[in-house]
Write a structure and sequence with these properties.
mainly alpha; single chain; 74 residues
Length: 74
């Protein structure tokens, strides 16, 4: 019902859940991101190396961006 309510084909959605056709790919992605230090959402990675987790608010993100901009270029 939920899939249909957002415009997806309900029969196809049920089939995907029943046969778990994407389960292996999802688990592989989960394993990769967990190994990168992400254990919850939201999680934002800046410049492919700075991980910020949790809801931070606009002021905190502004501060984070200012700090990162002040770092020497790699």
């Amino acid at each position: 019902k939920i899939a249909a309510s957002i415009g997806l084909d309900a029969t196809e959605a049920r089939a995907v859940l029943d046969d778990q056709r994407y389960a292996e790919a999802v688990r592989a992605e989960e394993k990769f991101w967990t190994s990168q230090g992400i254990s919850g959402v939201p999680a934002v990675i800046f410049d492919r190396k700075h991980l910020v987790t949790g809801a931070q608010g606009a002021e905190n993100y502004g501060s984070i961006l200012d700090q990162l901009a002040a770092l020497p270029a790699a």
